[in-house]
Amino acid sequence: MKLLTVNFLTCAVKACKTSAASFPLHFQDAELEQREMEYNPTFLQNILPRLEWDAILTVAAELGFTNLPASKPDGDCETEEEQQVMRNMHTLLLETEVMEGKMVCGNCGHAYKIKEGIANFLLPDHLGKVLFLDPPADDVGNTDSSLVAV
Q1: Inter-residue contact 36 to 146 (CB < 8 Å)
Q2: What are the tens digits of pLDDT across the range 115-126?
Q3: How confident is the model at residue 148 (pLDDT cuts 50, 70, 90)?
Q4: Are 130 and 149 in contact (CB under 8 A)?
Q5: Cα–Cα distance for residue pair 69/82, rounded to 1 Å
Q6: Beta bridge pairs of residue 27
Q7: CA-to-CA dists, residue 30 to 10, 21, 54, 85, 113, angstroms
Q8: Tens-place pLDDT, residues 64-117
């Protein structure tokens, strides 16, 4: 799971939807892997407006990446320093993958396991039940079961 992904994830527990503490999810026991890929400054410039910078800094610090600036870069690559910031972002967001571990909600403490680079967001029954409701049959005897989350 690329670290860029965590910028778009929040806790799936219904009670956490309105809590600011449910974002970002915090990594625990994370096993990281670096996979080199071609540097693409245009992609980074286009994704920058969508990044929640404080969340990126929090996750980066938790994983030991401390070379990002305190304020969000503007995406310019005119100076050597700006180019280095963009390369550091590329390394963190696109080349760094979490292969094993878990992501934990800061609000409810629910842990989402990560195995072989894939996070499991299925909730146990006590956190998000799904009921099958059988509506009455129509005049021909057909039924249309629906899913309702409670």
Answers
A1: no
A2: 999 999 888 766
A3: very low
A4: yes
A5: 10
A6: 103
A7: 18, 20, 20, 24, 10
A8: 999 999 999 988 878 899 899 999 999 999 999 999 999 999 999 999 999 999
Read off the pTM: 0.76
Helix/strand/coil for 133: strand
pLDDT in the model for residue 123: 83
CA–CA distance, 67 with 38 (Å, rounded to integer): 20
Q: Strand 118-119 and strand 130-133: pairing?
A: unpaired
Q: Assign residue 101 a region: left if phi > 0, alpha if psi is -120 to 50, beta otherwise?
A: left
The DSSP symbol for 47 reads H
Question: What one-character-per-residue DSSP string does 83-109 give?
Answer: HHHHHHHHIIIIIEEEEEEEEE-TTT-
Cross-strand partners of 119: 114
